[in-house]
Specification:
By secondary structure, the chain is an all-alpha fold. Helices cover 81% and strands 0% of the residues. The radius of gyration is 18 Å and the shape is rod-shaped.
């Protein structure tokens, strides 16, 4: 694996953790280091770090709070 790819992976603990559990990415990144972008996208999907996931989680929290408040009335 190229050094800059390896350093990029070690910078973020979640990326490194995903690499440990999904070792097929090691082979993929060894063959083509430009797949790092695909790897990052896969990590964001796995750990729900996309903007849409964050918005959905915020909406769910607001809905939960409003249900609790309506139950307390």
């Amino acid at each position: 694996m190229q050094v800059n790819t390896l350093l990029e992976l070690k910078k973020d603990s979640k990326m490194w953790e995903l690499l440990k559990y999904n070792s097929y990415w090691i082979k993929d990144l060894n063959r083509n280091p430009y797949n790092l972008k695909n790897y990052k996208e896969s990590m964001k999907i796995k750990y729900k770090l996309r903007t849409t996931d964050k918005i959905s989680e915020a909406i769910d929290n607001i809905d939960l709070i409003s249900n609790v408040l309506s139950a307390l009335k």
